[in-house]
Amino acid sequence: MAIHSAMVGNRLLAALPPADLSLLTPHFQNVSFELDTVLVHAGDQLDKVYFPHSGVIAFMVEVPEGQTVATTLMGSEGAIGSLTVLGPSISAVTATARVAGTASQILATKLQHACARSFAIRHVVQVHLRTQLLQLQDVAACNALHSVERRMARWLLQIHDRVADDALLLTQESLAQLLGVRRTTVTLTMSRLRAAGAIKSERRGLIEIDRARLESMVCGCHAVMHRRIDRHYDEELSARQRMSVLLRESLPSPEANI
Q1: Which conformational region is residue 145 in: left (phi greater than 0), alpha (psi within -120 to 50 degrees), or beta?
Q2: Smallest Cα–Cα separation from 56: which of 82, 35, 30?
C-alpha cells in the first residue's frame, strides 16, 4: 500500500485500495493547466471531475458589484467537480489555476458509476466534501474577523503549502481577487509584509516568501485549516481504507463456490 500511495500524486486517489482505484484509472485523461487557466466557469454544467496532482486552484465567486473573491484553494488533496456524485450539478464558482499543474480528468458519469460500485470511492468523496465545507466556514469567519494583512499571509501560506518553491508566481491582480480588495490595498499590504521581512522580494509577479516570518504574522486560521485537512484525511481516509480492504478479504472468493 505504501508503494501504491507513492505512485499516485493526488491524496484522494492515493487513499483508494488498488482494486477500487482500478475502477477509475481506465477512464482518466491526463491534463495540464497553465497559470490563470479556468477549469470550470460559474454556471457551467459539471460534466468533468479533476483530481489535481500538482498546482493550485482557487474557487472564485463574483459578487453583484463586479468584484471577485476567493472562497477556498485546492491542490493535490482534492477534486474539482466532486459534487457531481450527488447528481447533475451546476457550478456556483469559477475554478481558476493560481499555480500551473496537472490533473487526472474523468467524466462525471464515469465517476458516478464507479461510486455506485465502490464503498471506498464513495467514502473518499464524502470526506473530501465535508472537509471543503469546513474550510468554507473557516474562510468566511477569517474574512469577517481578521485584517487584510493577516488574511494575505494566510493565502500565501496556503499556496506555499501546495507548492515546492518559496518563489510564488502571483500578480497583484490575482492577490486582489483572492482577498476581495482593490490593488491599491494589495500594494500597501505587500509593503507591510516586505518591511517585516515576510516577503524577501517581489519582481515580475514573483513573490519570494520567508515562511517562518510569514507564520509569525498570520492569524490562527491557517493552522486550524491545515490541521483539519490532515485530521480528516489521515484519520478518516486511512481508517476506511483498511476497513474496505478487510471487508473485501472477508468475502468468499469466486473459486470457493466452485
Answers
A1: alpha
A2: 35
